[in-house]
Amino acid sequence: MLASIQFERYYFSRIDFKYTPDSESVENKGLEFGHEVRYLDSDEIEVIVNCTMTDESGLLLQVTMHGFFKLEKDEESDPEEVALLCEKNTLAIMFPYLRSAVSDISLKANTSPIILPTVNIVSLLENSKKIIAETEDSKVKDK
Fold it and tell me: Are 24 and 112 in contact (CB under 8 A)?
């Protein structure tokens, strides 16, 4: 049997929104994502997703979301495959909730809604891992 996950619940531990009317005219907004997967016990996972958006006019949007998942696996499940499943699928499940919250926050602030782009989670993770590996390689070379 392959491992499976079930989305249990989520909450937002941080929502910061600083806005100036000048942000409406700024085209280039910086967008950063980060995540952490925590194995709370053998069958529960917590995933923390951070999203930060900034621009040169003073716009700042920071959101931290925590999602909790139930993990079902058997003794024969490969730990590396389980970790990969958890990382990719949990982020893909959580992202629409994060995207909706960001839009709601900006809309309720009576501004033009901020709509996060759809994201290819697999590509995002691969790029993140590549950047981390390159950073670690450059640290080793500097020593």
Answer: yes
The helix (H) or strand (E) run that includes residue 93 is helix 79-108
pTM above 0.90, yes or no: no
Give Cα 50 to chain centroid, integer Å.
5
Spatial separation of the C-alpha atoms in residues 49 and 31, rounded to whole Å: 13
Nearest to 24 by CA among 1, 52, 50, 57: 57
Q: How many residues does the chain have?
A: 143
Burial class (CB in 10 A: 0-12, 13-18, 19+), 140: exposed
What order do you get walking across the sheet with 44-54 strand by strand? 4-18, 60-72, 44-54, 30-41
Lowest average pLDDT, out of 28-32, 33-37, 66-70, goes to: 28-32
Q: What are phi and psi of 33, to 5 degrees?
A: -125, 145
Q: Are 19 and 109 in contact (CB under 8 A)?
A: yes
